[in-house]
Amino acid sequence: MTSTSRDRDLRSQLETLTTEAFRPELADVDRLPTLEIARLMNAEDATVAGAVAAQVPAIAAAIDAIAERMARGGRLVYAGAGTAGRLGVLDASECPPTFNTDPARVVGLIAGGPDAMVTSVEGAEDSPELAESDLAALGLTPDDTVVGVSASGRTPYAVGAVAYARGRGALTVGLSCNRDSALAAAAEHGIEVVVGPEFLTGSTRLKAGTAQKLVLNMLSTITMIRLGKTYGNLMVDVRASNEKLRARSRRIVAQVTGAGDEDVERALAATDGEVKHAILVLLAGVDGPTAARLLDEADGHLRAALAAAGS
Q1: What is the pLDDT of residues 45-70, one digit of tens each?
Q2: Which of 17, 99, 238, 269 would suit a FRET pair with 122, their CA atoms being 20 to 30 Å apart?
Q3: C-alpha–C-alpha distance, residues 34 and 304, integer Å
Q4: pTM value?
């Protein structure tokens, strides 16, 4: 296929995508006062949560499947290009400090590698072979999950990642912002959050990017809840890597146990700063090693460990 015919084919594809549609009513937006432009953008953004809500059953089904595999030791891998890839890397990078996960358990892959986080890597998103190479380096297993992320739902890197992962027996999820996308069709779990045409034609870092961020938040956060990484809505697996997080750790232990500052400090000192362990020490009256054993036997679920300690 010649470059001219490839260009014609791509333009034809883009013309069918909701995310690429032109909004004639916004054709003179550059002539409006700044306040009016801001109000229009805000009104557009307000529609995103409703579009995500329409996909909540599909999101929940994907989360249950992901959590089941991660409980067996599997990994969660995001794969995307451009904004979609950056959002996946962002979500993955925030799991270790929030949930004390091994950085290798939630991974973000972006077409073109780390350099693509801050600059465009020409041609990277058009290469399904690049996605295959990136995933091959991880040595996928059937317990792993690969989430392809693409606003258009046609990005070759994301579609190629899902196709390769499915061929290796891994769970696959396709997150896009257009109906009947190739990405959703390639995956076992298709999530299509249709946010409609963008405020700036084709600028999918806007509503589509917001929608993808919301869904990725749900995938990782609720999966971690299912894995026992929280106690209620408290981050009891938080990694206290700075002063703010150390203060949060102390506050969480106090909130759950009702213990005073001195007792909280002693419990955290006895458990190397591990919040769940400290809570167990205080509520179950056990020492640090016993708390560690109980949590290990409960697969990290604090409620189950507390029940076992009281039985």
Answers
A1: 999 999 999 999 999 999 999 999 99
A2: 17
A3: 55
A4: 0.91
